[in-house]
Amino acid sequence: PTYGTVSRNGVYAYASSFDQVGPITKNAKDSAYVLEIIAGVDQMDMTTLNYQKYDFSSLIGENISGKVYAVEKNISSLIKEISSKILTFLKSSSVNNLIAPYSITCNFKYL
Q: Is 80 helix (H, G, I), strand (E, B) or coil?
């Protein structure tokens, strides 16, 4: 989920389009704080995006009712099992979800 947000510079590449760097924390709030620090453009990684300000922590605690989330349809059974719990929570929170037949985003750096 951090592709383009966090630099991969210095990461040993197993599959360069899949390697991503991100925080491992105890909760979403800590993850948001760490991600704000490590996110940003890096001249040594052409896939990073140049956003002016990353502000993930302000979204913690925000009411998610009525939000729309895209869910990838073609995912592995393990990911489906894990994400089904998240989808159950989102549906119980009056969140609308959109089932996408395939990924709708693309990074054109490799084309």
A: helix
